[in-house]
Amino acid sequence: MDTEQDSLAELAHLLPQMSANDCQDPPKYWTIHGLWPDKGEDCNRTWHFNVTEIKDLMLDMRHYWPDVLHSSLNRTQFWKHEWDKHGTCAASLEVLNSQKKYFGKALELYQHIDLNSCLLKAGIKPSSSYYKMTAIKEALTRFYGVTPKIQCLPPEEGEIAQTIGQIEFCFTKELQLRNCTSMKGGSNPVEAHLKLGTEELSVCNDTLPTYYPSEVQDHQ
């Protein structure tokens, strides 16, 4: 793990390319995807996820860190995945060296960023109209003082607009906001392609119209 930087990524709350059956009652606000070290995955496979260690966080976890792709019966599987893959690596930092600290700090950073309010104040809200990606980036950079990484779903066949899928904020090892820039060597979650269900997210194209969906649609 490279302890110089850690990255927080937030999962978009609505993805119109997904059918209603794939997204169980999606929340109408941005939620957490995870808190990821820049390098390293599955760092300690003997350190198993234990949901009882985050019982005090459960209300916030269910609200701000839901699994929107699976039924409520399996909601802890998403948290287990994030802990196994990323949390066991992030735990090399003292501030994140337990399951309660890891999930609790991610929730704290989420509240501090308050992406929902920021976008609304900038006049950017779910709509059937398109936005310019450069305008979205400028609004976020102006508000936070750093440049986040925005990922999108590419246009479907016959469509002209990409769809916002995820916004990532990056932090130093002291958990202070920093610009999201690619690192030399190794994989970097702010640059990597991500798989979400059957759809693929990648860094947004600045020149394409951008759709911030207002509701889940079932595309035929």
Automatic annotation (TrEMBL):
Bilayer-spanning residue ranges: none
Protein's UniProt keywords contain Disulfide bond: yes
Main location: other
Gene3D superfamilies listed in its UniProt record: Ribonuclease T2-like
One Pfam family matching this protein: Ribonuclease_T2
Compartments, as annotated in UniProt: Lysosome lumen
Key words, A-Z: Disulfide bond
PROSITE patterns the UniProt entry points to: RNASE_T2_1, RNASE_T2_2
InterPro entries in alphabetical order: Ribonuclease_T2_eukaryotic, RNase_T2-like, RNase_T2-like_sf, RNase_T2_His_AS_1, RNase_T2_His_AS_2
Highest taxon above the source species: Eukaryota
Keyword Ribonucleoprotein: no
PANTHER family membership: RIBONUCLEASE T2
Family from the record: Belongs to the RNase T2 family.
Protein name per UniProt: Ribonuclease T2
Gene label: RNASET2
